[in-house]
Inverse folding.
């Protein structure tokens, strides 16, 4: 029988995805730029060999797949994807589907999708989350493309996706760039989750002078509570892992410079493009950039010194650690609320009709941000599908009210001690601005009108007024 699906690119992610597909009983044709890697992959496939058709030429590869042929391209994002598609195109037939499973910028996905419009070929932009392990044993999969193309791959993708209570973590989310857009926001939220965890770690390390191992134990405990999630779990494990060279906690031996490949930044750029505040995600991306400026930071510490403020002032240590747990939950709520708000704006902007409860559902397992919390988001959006924002749904408004006091105490204590908490503070600022019916932008409008005659609306209803600036001063001014 012919293969159900094909895959190009036998790097770590591609190989693992191919093995996962084969293991779930789907015959798969594989191809790699270097035939040697294809042979090696096949040799290592052991008992899964029966389900794998290793191919050394594109002709052979395409012929091995049942039409209309779904072909997953799992290579480095960017130009290589365009080049691969060009190489593949001459061999394909009407209705064949090229599937980009890398971390593509959704704007590239939209362009690729459009470029194939009159060719008879179709395209799927597919976000895959869960790292190497996820790809091998069950990722979360976010699909964007034509619904017909989705129907052709639904069975295979459902068989390989992670399961949450037997529900597969894969869904068709909309046309063209929808899947890659949602994956981008997943990553933006991932950045915020990771940054907030790092900020809390910083308070425990530099504020309470706790050792990595002690902090690891705190995270382990939190993982049994409301913060239960993959990132908290691995953070605990990370903190308790020893460096084989020195025997010290390995986290203490790791340079404090974080890398980034662009997806976090894209989510912030798109949020800004649409005028949606995503401050906690922005703070997380900026914190990574600042982290990479290690030399500059060290020089600045010499010039400016650390803020000579009080040591973290904590009267009841246990109560403060409980506050940290609630603060992290509150910060998380802020970041997710922002991520979902960006998706809801994008859904309108790009005409996708993104299904929010489904997105929360397919993030409950398999992906990097998987957590119990996402189950609560699923319920909240299912109960209130038209809510303007996650934080005003009945379930989450209650959670915000329960936890924002702790966030306020933690952010204040950290600020007074000079400990940086940019993402947590941004989440707090977001809550405080979002929930305040009367803000301060009347002052901005007055200034804009003063220097640029931009006009303002009045609270008594009249639109586009201009101020009599300076002419009629208020009595006593
Ligand atoms: C995932 C991850 C994965 C990867 C990103 C993060 O969902 O499985 O997000 O896609 O780790 O590339 O990248 P950076 O931290 O390097 O930007």
């Amino acid at each position: 029988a012919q293969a159900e699906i094909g895959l190009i690119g036998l790097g770590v992610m591609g190989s693992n995805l191919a093995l996962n597909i084969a293991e779930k009983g789907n015959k798969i044709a594989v191809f790699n730029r270097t035939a040697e890697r294809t042979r090696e992959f096949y040799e290592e496939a052991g008992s899964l060999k029966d389900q794998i058709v290793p191919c050394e030429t594109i002709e052979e590869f395409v012929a091995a797949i049942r039409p209309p042929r779904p072909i997953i391209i799992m290579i480095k994002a960017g130009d290589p994807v365009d080049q691969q598609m060009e190489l593949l195109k001459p061999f394909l037939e009407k209705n064949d589907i090229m599937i980009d499973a890398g971390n593509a910028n959704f704007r590239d996905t939209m362009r690729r999708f459009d470029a194939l419009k009159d060719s008879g070929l179709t395209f799927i932009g597919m976000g895959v989350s869960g790292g190497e392990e996820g790809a091998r044993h069950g990722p979360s999969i976010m699909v964007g493309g034509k619904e017909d193309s989705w129907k052709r791959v639904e069975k295979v993708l459902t068989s390989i996706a992670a399961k949450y209570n037997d529900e597969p973590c894969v869904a068709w989310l909309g046309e063209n760039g929808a899947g890659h857009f949602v994956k981008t926001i997943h990553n933006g939220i991932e950045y915020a989750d990771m940054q907030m965890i790092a900020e809390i770690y910083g308070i425990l390390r530099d504020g309470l002078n706790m050792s990595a191992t002690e902090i690891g134990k705190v995270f382990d405990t939190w993982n049994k509570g409301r913060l239960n999630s993959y990132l908290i779990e691995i953070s605990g494990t990370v903190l308790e892992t020893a460096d084989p060279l020195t025997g010290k906690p390995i986290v203490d031996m790791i340079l404090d410079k974080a890398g980034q490949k662009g997806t976090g930044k894209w989510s912030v750029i798109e949020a800004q493009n649409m005028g949606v505040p995503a401050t906690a995600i922005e703070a997380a991306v900026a914190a990574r950039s600042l982290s990479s400026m290690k030399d500059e930071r060290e020089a600045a510490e010499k010039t400016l010194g650390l803020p000579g403020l009080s040591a973290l002032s904590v009267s009841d240590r246990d109560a403060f650690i409980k506050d940290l747990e609630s603060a992290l939950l509150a910060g998380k709520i802020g970041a997710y609320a922002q991520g979902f708000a960006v998706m809801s704006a994008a859904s309108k902007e790009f005409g996708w009709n993104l299904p929010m409860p489904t997105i929360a559902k397919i993030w409950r397992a398999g992906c990097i941000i998987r957590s119990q919390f996402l189950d609560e988001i699923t319920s909240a959006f299912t109960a209130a599908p038209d809510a303007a924002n996650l934080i005003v749904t009945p379930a989450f408004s209650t959670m915000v009210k329960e936890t924002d006091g702790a966030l306020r105490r933690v952010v204040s204590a950290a600020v007074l001690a000079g400990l940086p908490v940019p993402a947590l503070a941004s989440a707090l600022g977001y809550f405080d601005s979002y929930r305040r019916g009367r803000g301060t932008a009347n002052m901005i409008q007055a200034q804009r009108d003063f220097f640029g005659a931009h006009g303002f609306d009045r609270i008594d209803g009249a639109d586009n007024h201009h101020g009599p600036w300076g002419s009629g001063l208020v009595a006593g001014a």
Notes: The CA atoms of residues 243 and 253 lie 7 Å apart.
